[in-house]
Design a protein that fits this description.
Creatine Kinase, Chain A, domain 2; single chain; alpha+beta; six-stranded mixed β-sheet
């Protein structure tokens, strides 16, 4: 089998000896099936993974020889894929959650703009993200990528284009094959486990230099752009910031980054986890989302007036998030564990307040000039499906504009102490999602019914597990 270096050398040699279109030398994406066939051939790709995110954001799909991929083969997955929990179980039918008796096929439609190599595989392998359509090509409203595409379409109908920049936090933890044992930070190059309180520490990053080098290397091979990387407050907790851009493209990048980071960590005998709250007493992991809206014709930021002041749409967008994000929170905090992060004094917002450069609020307006004016949603957890978190956040802001809502006054106080203004658990969050008819306008009633049913099923699975707290305080005391 040709090595990665040999494949790269072949591409460079081919480019020198004959005129090769730039698309064929790019690390990510082509436009046509002809380009795809040539792109795969130049790299000696033997297998290709056709993947799509399920409701949890887990990659699902099929692998096939590249020759079959380019021969117009029809790809299908069962619709039941979107009706099982994170633990692989199928909940009972409840409310608007119903099974499709036939479990009919859904078609995978490759998005060739996402074609890239799989750099951690030993054999030359490629991957492509696929859209989901019905058997006759109809839209499937509950597929996560389609949910986000629908929200983006609603902006486009108004002549606007939303722009986002996610920030993804995650922990590196020592390998642990027993789920009953607590997680611990891994040993770094010093031979010692890193401690908490290392926010922005370069030494903390240097502890895992080789792993981080692999993350950068794998990312570059896939055409994924990292803006910055920092060490966060938790022990061996890192954060990757992505450059701003189109919501679909950025959701795709987060989807691929999670996989990339896990694979790089495994190469070094470490786990990378995106659990919202993996370690007791330590800060949780967030996926903050920076958001702005651009006028398609003028390219101007819709959040700013010509004189540089905040526009009416800016305030209405904030009001929409204040009103609807708490009701759509289950799409940003999707598991029982997610609500362990949203607690006071744990560096996470517990409110729906907003403020200028105030990190204790749910919705922060960073300091910037008028052209870069944006709103940061600090509520989503890193365990969220990026397509659904972006759809819920952008959809909530758009509803604020559509309904001309007015926000509260900005707060300058510490807002993440005291009373909690958000759902305290998974079932409460599910009920709020179902009870808000406005959200069905931007997310679809079919998606909400299916998602709520799966989340209730996950809660029932969780209730079957006896926790250490119960054994500690109930075993001999009650």
């Amino acid at each position: 089998m040709p090595s990665r270096k040999a494949v790269t050398a072949t591409i460079e040699k081919t480019s020198r000896t004959r005129k090769v279109p730039p698309a064929l030398t790019a690390s990510r994406g082509v436009k046509t099936w002809k380009e795809a066939a040539d792109w795969l051939k130049i790299r000696g790709i033997e297998d290709i993974e056709c993947i799509t995110p399920d409701l949890a954001g887990v990659p699902r799909g099929k692998m096939m020889p590249s020759s079959k991929f380019t021969s117009n083969t029809s790809l299908a997955l069962p619709s039941a894929l979107y009706r099982h929990t994170i633990s692989g179980e199928y909940p009972e039918e409840t409310g608007n959650f119903r099974y499709e008796p036939r479990d009919s096929d859904l078609k995978l439609v490759p998005d060739l703009s996402t074609l890239s190599v799989v750099p951690w595989e030993s054999d030359p392998t490629a991957q492509v993200i696929c859209d989901i359509v019905g058997s006759t090509g109809e839209n499937v409203p509950y597929a996560p990528r389609n949910v986000l595409k629908n929200v983006v379409r609603l902006y486009r109908e108004r002549g606007w284009k939303p722009v986002v920049a996610p920030e993804i936090e995650f922990y590196l933890v020592a390998m642990n094959d027993d789920p009953d044992y607590p997680l611990h930070p891994p040993k770094g190059r010093s031979g010692r486990s890193i401690l908490s309180g290392q926010g922005y520490s370069i030494a903390g990053i240097n502890e895992f230099d080789e792993l981080i080098d692999d993350i950068y290397h794998f990312s570059e091979k896939q055409g994924l752009e990292i803006d910055t990387l920092i060490h966060e407050e938790g022990p061996a907790q890192l954060e990757i910031n992505l450059r701003h851009g189109d919501p679909i493209e950025l959701a795709d990048q987060v989807f691929m980054f999670k996989r990339t980071i896990r694979e790089a960590a495994l190469k070094h005998g470490i786990y990378a986890t995106f659990m919202a709250k993996p370690m007791q007493g330590q800060a949780g992991s967030a996926m903050h989302i920076h958001q702005s809206v651009v006028d398609i014709k003028t390219g101007k930021n819709v959040f700013s007036n010509p004189d540089g002041t905040e526009s009416k749409a800016f305030f209405q967008f904030i009001a929409g998030m204040q009103t609807y994000v708490p009701k759509a929170l289950v799409m940003m905090a999707p598991y029982v564990n997610s609500y362990r992060r949203l607690t006071p004094e744990m560096s996470a917002p517990v409110n729906n307040a907003w403020g200028y450069d105030n990190r204790t609020t749910a919705f922060r307006v960073p300091l910037s000039d008028a052209a870069a004016r944006r709103i940061e949603n600090r509520l989503p957890s890193s365990d969220a499906n990026p397509y659904l978190a972006l759809a819920a956040s952008l959809g909530s802001g758009l509803l604020g504009i559509m309904n001309a809502l007015e926000p509260s006054l900005p707060t300058e106080d510490t807002a993440n102490e005291g009373a909690i203004d958000l759902p305290r658990g998974l079932l409460e969050a599910v009920s709020l999602l179902e009870s808000e008819p406005a959200l069905a306008q931007v997310l679809s009633a079919e998606f909400i019914g299916l998602y709520a049913g799966v989340k209730r099923g996950e809660f029932e699975t969780f209730m079957q597990v006896i926790s250490p707290w119960e054994r500690e305080f109930l075993l001999l005391n009650v």
